[in-house]
Amino acid sequence: MEPTRAHAEQLDAADPLAAFRARFAGTDDDDPDRLLYLDGNSLGRMPLATPAAVARVVEQEWARGLVGSWSQWIGAATRLGDELGAGVLGAGPGQVLVGDSTTVNLYELLVAGAAARPGRDVLVCTADDFPTDRYVVAGVAEARGMTVREIEADLDEGLDPAVLAAALDERVAVVVLSLVAYRSGALADVVAVTRAVHDVGALVLWDLSHAVGAVPTDLDASGADLAVGCTYKYLNGGPGAPAFLYVRRDLQAGLRSPIQGWFGQRDQFAMGPEYVPADGIERFGTGTPPVLGMAAVEVGAALVAEAGIDRLAAKARTMTDLVVALGDAWLVPHGVVLASPRQAARRGAHVTFAHPQAWQLTQALVDRGVVPDFRTPDRVRLGPAPLYTRFVDVWDAMARFRDVLEDRSFESFPAERARVT
């Protein structure tokens, strides 16, 4: 049966997370022309508390405290890492560090992991993984004289565990995978993959960027080795917000960062002539931490922790089920195809649809006040972040999607994707 708007309203009325919406900017529900934002998996909304948190650092800690505020800042990367680990990632203290970008963190952990598996000359990734992951893997392999074993993954259904198993042998040093596929939202099985990789003596490095804050990660319980992720999507840390890295505690002593920065030095302020890595997670520190950015991340991460990752994941499943059901009823008759796993348990918090004119459809939706995302080659991606998106927002956005298809207004938009500079 086709879901009605009344059904969406009922879901909102019963939503235990409904009150969080008012704690974000741009959520004025009295505006009939309100923007329907379904791109929270690219950039999250700004929490209302963020400007004050950043201003406090600027106006008090920096403007008044000056260099004396370093006593508060010096351990911020570890302190915030512990908060993120406890509230969001399922990681105990001393295993998460905040700072740098996802790309830098990925490079750092991949090189360290490869070096910790001497005699192995293969790195594994999937052909459909996020570009920066594949680029970093290729660059590290070239620099170290290793081989990349790039395995196929279905654009819609994600990685087949049997395909991964066939690619694993005693030559593999590190496997790099995304927990949630950036294009389709397909969800990998952390426990099963980790077990398979460990069976051949290799390490697995997870990219959690499209998962953290929307689906459970449970890093410690899953036995994960290494992980990285961004904080500007479901964690709502803002554009360019610092990323995080995770290194399981028992692996830390055996891994050495290839970026020997002074924030990873054991006795940082001794200013000694030689680099000696710190004993714990701090050894993966590089340069001066992005203090202003971390202030924003702390606000967003605290909101996610308060909401609870299990409740967020449950809402995401129900919300994406609604997207799929409405897509079946309204979009499929117009030639649109579901390009994500149909079962909620097999996908993250976004849903993708395929259409030959996906770029034009994306632009037409933006013109109608709906913000989705376009992904090559022919996909419209919808990411209703569960922390602040309502079910009626999803219903209304899908109704506008249907209208754009029915009136063919998307055909008036340029067929070629413009280059953003």
From TrEMBL:
EC id: 3.7.1.3
Reaction(s) catalysed by this chain's protein: 3-hydroxy-L-kynurenine + H2O = 3-hydroxyanthranilate + L-alanine + H(+); L-kynurenine + H2O = anthranilate + L-alanine + H(+)
Biochemical pathway: Amino-acid degradation; L-kynurenine degradation; L-alanine and anthranilate from L-kynurenine: step 1/1; Cofactor biosynthesis; NAD(+) biosynthesis; quinolinate from L-kynurenine: step 2/3
Keyword Nucleotide-binding attached: no
Any GO molecular function: kynureninase activity
Record keywords: Hydrolase, Pyridine nucleotide biosynthesis, Pyridoxal phosphate
Binding positions (pyridoxal 5'-phosphate): T102, T103, F130, P131, T132, D133, D207, H210, Y232, W262, T288
Lineage top rank: taxon: Bacteria
InterPro entries for this protein: Kynureninase (IPR010111), PyrdxlP-dep_Trfase (IPR015424), PyrdxlP-dep_Trfase_major (IPR015421), PyrdxlP-dep_Trfase_small (IPR015422)
Regions annotated as coiled coil: none
Alphabetical list of Pfam families matching this protein: KYNU_C (PF22580)
Listed cofactors: pyridoxal 5'-phosphate
N6-(pyridoxal phosphate)lysine: residues carrying this PTM: K233
Assembly information from the UniProt record: Homodimer.
Entries under PANTHER family matching the protein: KYNURENINASE (PTHR14084:SF0)
Family designation: Belongs to the kynureninase family.
Job of this protein: Catalyzes the cleavage of L-kynurenine (L-Kyn) and L-3-hydroxykynurenine (L-3OHKyn) into anthranilic acid (AA) and 3-hydroxyanthranilic acid (3-OHAA), respectively.
Name this protein carries in UniProt: Kynureninase
